[in-house]
Structures
1.
Amino acid sequence: MSVALFTYGTLMVEEIMAALAGKPLPSREAVLKGFQRFRMRGEIYPGIGPATGHETRGRLYVAMDDETMALLDAFEGEQYHRQPLTVTTADGTSQAAETYLLASSFSHCRTDRPWEIEQFTSRHLTRFLVQCRRFRAKAREAKKTF
């Protein structure tokens, strides 16, 4: 089965997604209306939450296989859960896609400060890529898949 996945934080960096998936994945820009991106307390990655009048720009990966989604579910952990939503692509097309939302039990970790991709890539990208590659290698060794 193949699903579309809307990403709005570290996973919207195509190099990070390729490091986790083990290959480049087809994607395009998209917008999720009615949600706002925010910084997580003490973390370098963001979350999103419902916010009237806001929109979140991100990247839509259009053909995610079950194996890659299982790896991403493990990577996101219990802090996030996948939920189907509708996004709008750059050409104005609406598309169903899943996205990782902050689990309600972690809402206390959310801040009111915005998260900026430019700040993440300039300060943390190199180290985060190393962590992603290690995660994939450990997951492959443990499960003999991905």
2.
Amino acid sequence: MKFPTLHALVAFAALAIPAFAQDPDPGPSPKARALVENLKFQTGEVTLKDGLAKIALPADFKFLGPEDANKVLTKLRGNPPGANPLGMIVPTKSTLLTQESWAVIVTWEEDGYVKDDDAAKINYTDLLKQMQENTRDGNEKRTKEGYPAMELVGWAAPPRYDAATRKMYWAQELSFEGSDEHTLNYNLRLLGRRGVLVLNAVAGISQLAEIEQATPTILGMVDFQQGHRYADFTPGTDKVASYGLAALVAGGVLAKTGMLAKLGLLLAKGGKLVVLGAVALVAAIKKLFVRKDANG
């Protein structure tokens, strides 16, 4: 069985303009600090998308709404506009101004009810091998377009699916040519009646333990509301997604809905775009985006 090959990493990079290895890190600019100081962090209970879902934030997490989350992505992180996130979950201790800062971007993909009847049948070892092959096959094209070659090292945390809560999570370890530290792409998915809540965190691989420890809390704080839950699906009336869990892990949501474009071709550490597979799509990407003046 062949799976879709597209996968995008929603990225959280360092806020300062990337320096060469021999240069000292100048730290965040006054402009970046001012932007963060003006963000309106929310605590307690937050409603997403007119009642689609709710987030019950514990004391060690805070939330940025769509407007402020978009400011972080575009003005602070230098991504092009167009991501349209539902928001961003941020550890309370995070300043968003350090290399160690991480957060979880929340987006919504209304692609239909994803059947989970393939959950017990998926061979994630075989799936990983195919994804690794697709990544290697795409490197020649990526380097011609000016992007660094990349390697899917393996599962940083193998896919796990909770059939009772309809929640799934997994993590990938990636390496990029020219980068000393491997990148961690941590994926969390919540299946609903009409689509999937997509939660993504990207950090250095050294932060795996921290994010892994926080994952049960993050999954536990987010839930669909009545009428939007997986159990509310109406057979024969509601739309059914054209893929299952295996394709979800391999990038089915992104391939089927064009989420890469919706996420604005988000940047990874060092201002590089991260595209796993989807060689044809890489060919359509013009040049590397550069960080905006918010850092300078």
3.
Amino acid sequence: MEGHLFAGIAVSDFDRAVAWYERLLGTPETFRAHDTEYVWTLAEDRSLYVVRKPGSAGHGLLMVMVDDLDAFLSDAATRGIEPEAVETYEGGVRKAVFRDPDGNEVGFGGLPG
């Protein structure tokens, strides 16, 4: 199946969340869908959006695989963002778990060497 992945995270305080995601991702939003929905393009045909939806905030789970997890974590740390945990699974796959201000889980993973 081909298509564009457009994954969303519901937040309660939009401005606070946008500031946090800008620090986590290291860039301002790619575009603004409307006043309470901003979109970051992570790679070709892969986007993450944050939307103000207080009733659903805090229940999101998102996982993004990156080419170089160590480089991502180092870059995030320079912006003041640290994971709450880094897990290693059988076979050497790693996952860094971040939580946004609403408690949504945003994971970044990396394959072994």
4.
Amino acid sequence: MKENPMRRSVSLLVAGLCLTASAFSQDGKMTSAQIEVVEAERAFARHCVEHGIAESWMEFFADDGIVFRPGPVNAKEFYRKQVPTPRPLRATLNWEPRYGDVSQAGDLGYSMGPWNYVTNVPPKEPDAHGYFFSIWKRQTDGKWRVAMDFGTGEIPAATEDHVFGKPFEPARQYTINVPRESNPAVELQVLTEMDRGFASSPQSAGVLDTYLAVVSDDAKTFKPGAPPADKEALRSFIPAGKEVSLVLMPIGGGVAKSNDLAYTYGSYDLQEGGRTKEKGYYVHMWKRDESAKWKIVVTNFSGKAN
């Protein structure tokens, strides 16, 4: 889930995996669908600890689920080509969901949290750590499966988050009055056009201010090699100035049946003075605010500087 699964690692505190999602809903803030997504994420992690990476991705991803290698590819097609995981497992990948949300229709959700990767046999490599961001969809049979997996990739050192057993925090909930005329296909077109629109930001405002205006105040932001941060961290990613352009080229996405939660993804080209500063791939998680306007609640950029 985990942006680079071969380096995404496992804490040996497997006891933390025995905690059920219901244990994290004592404050009554989690809906039944939110609990299901947390349970599914934890079951995915347990399966990976027991059976290995390729086998678990084949089991828990949707048939059209996407991973980034580095661009978006079909996860099952990618892992079907991998050799079976040798026994006993030479390395263990584990993770824990800490934050997420689910649509009002209970058909689309996301979760994020820390991952750990540890080698089990000599010569042992240093542990690797990072953060994952997974998008989940309910399938026609009622089961939740991963639609997309991204994240930070490996970060330089573990943080206190990488000690497992901490509680899950659901995203802030509020009443959303979705316009009656909304439908998922139309809303996906609206959101992809919003992505494209950043490239033509008014020079008077600049792309940084234009982008920040669409990002929710409580958004989570992912960048390569760094823990998830808040909205203000985007200021270190998108330079201020009239000569800066953020060219987003959407590839796809999805919208909940309730038209309150959605995602888009594609490639990006961050330019300054007409020259590429960084390019790679992005994922946006969108949610309507109290006034029914779409806001970005998760940004995930992963690329390389030129």
